[in-house]
Amino acid sequence: MKARKKILLTGASGTIGFEVLKQLYKNKELYDITVFDVKSSKSKRKFNSYKDEINIVYGNIFNENDLNTIGAGQEIVIHLAAIIPPLADEKPKLSYLVNTVGTEKLIRSLEINSPKAFFIYSSSISVYGDRLENPFINSNDNLKPSLGDEYAKTKIEAENIIQNCKLDWTIFRLAAIMGGHKISKLMFHQPLKTSLEIATPVDTARAFVNAIEHQEQLSKKIFNLGGGENCRITYKDFLSRSFSIYGLGDVDFHPKSFAEKNFHCGFYDDGDILNNILHFRNDTLENYFENEKHKLSDFKTKFISIFKKPIKNYLQKQSEPLIAFHNQDKKWMDHFFNSDK
Predict the structure, then answer these.
(1) Which residues of 305-337 are buried (b: 16+ CB within 10 A; e: fewer)?
(2) Which of 49, 141, 336, 338 is deepest in the core (most CB within 10 A)?
(3) Pairing of strands 31-37, 5-10
(4) Is NAD among the key words of this record (predicted)?
(5) Is the pLDDT assigned to residue 1 strictly greater than 80?
(6) What is the pTM of this model?
(7) What one-character-per-residue DSSP string does 245-282 give?
């Protein structure tokens, strides 16, 4: 019998990471799976049903001693561990420590212990910065993170480390991943006219899993990963449909609640290249919204509908662009808004 391929998955308790784990586990006869994650009640709960058939290693990605417990001879590494917004914005030092330093320390450990490993990295559309005026994005476009986007900077630095390492590698720059999101103040940072291409966690995970058997085609290359033409919409319309599903009514916030610039997202003009290799796309915007509907009970939707006004009032109070506008804070107004013409 052919030996199982040794797979290391970091960040397996995250939204995408857990989907990757589930898909790998369906082929457990092919893969010897090791997950590396921070020990928490969330990760222990998620891994509990797998604990007898996968290798679970708990630790911090930036701790060399923890990384040395992963073991030698890993053949495939799917690196998803990261601090993402809004926490990345609130704790930029932690974001840098995990996203950049952690990636470098993981690579250095692998170069010693698993030098033949194929390193598959999850980067972000945020590295392209504000694309309101030119929303069609190609993977060879200049990287220009939006002003103050520390998360994007950590991803760019990690990409540079990967491209100069001794391992074989590929980088996927993920579009807006929708599914399992919680509403937060970050929703107001994105301009309503943003061109938005989404991908679901399931489709995204499928790309990472399918990449295992396509090393030669992916080797030393960077790809944009998005849902394609059937997953494109404006941010305003996306919010409108989402609010309708949740029973929140119209997106009728104060006009200055949403930023007018300095975010990211767009349409991946070359996104079909990766899909033609990995054939990971199954979902569309329509079935995304259908799935969101099915997650909600009639009772919950009715409850939200009854209290939609105080809920939206609470949300609006979280809007940092609106706070800057009300305070006439010139620094932050310049950051969020276009100058009056």
Answers:
(1) eeebeebbeebeeebbbbbbbeeeeeebbebbb
(2) 336
(3) parallel
(4) yes
(5) no
(6) 0.95
(7) HHT-------TTSS-SSS----EETTTHHHHHHH----
Tell me if residue 80 falls in helix, strand or coil.
coil
At the topology level of CATH, where does 5-181+198-232+267-286 sit? Rossmann fold (3.40.50)
| Tokens of residue 60, six digits | 């911090």
Model confidence at 183, in pLDDT bands (50, 70, 90)?
A: confident
Contact 59, 36 (CB under 8 A): yes
The 10s digit of each residue's pLDDT in 161-170 is 999 999 999 9
3-class secondary structure, 58 = strand
Tokens 């085609």 correspond to: 217
Interatomic CA distance for residues 260 and 266, integer angstroms: 15
210 token code pair: 């399918």
R_g of the chain, CA atoms, integer Å: 21
Dig out the tokens for 150 from the structure: 């520390």
d(CA 51, CA 293): 32
Cα distance between residue 21 and residue 31, in whole Å: 11
Characterize the bridge pairing of strands 136-137 and 168-174. unpaired
CA angle centred on 81, ends 33 and 7, rounded to 5°: 20
Residue 273: both structure tokens together? 């290249």
For 23, what's the count of Cα atoms within 13 Å in the CB-facing half-sphere? 22
Which residue in the block uniquely carries the two structure tokens 């993402």? 84
DSSP structure string for 107-157 = HHHHHHH-TT-EEEEEEEGGGG---SSS-EE-TTSPP-PPTT-HHHHHHHH
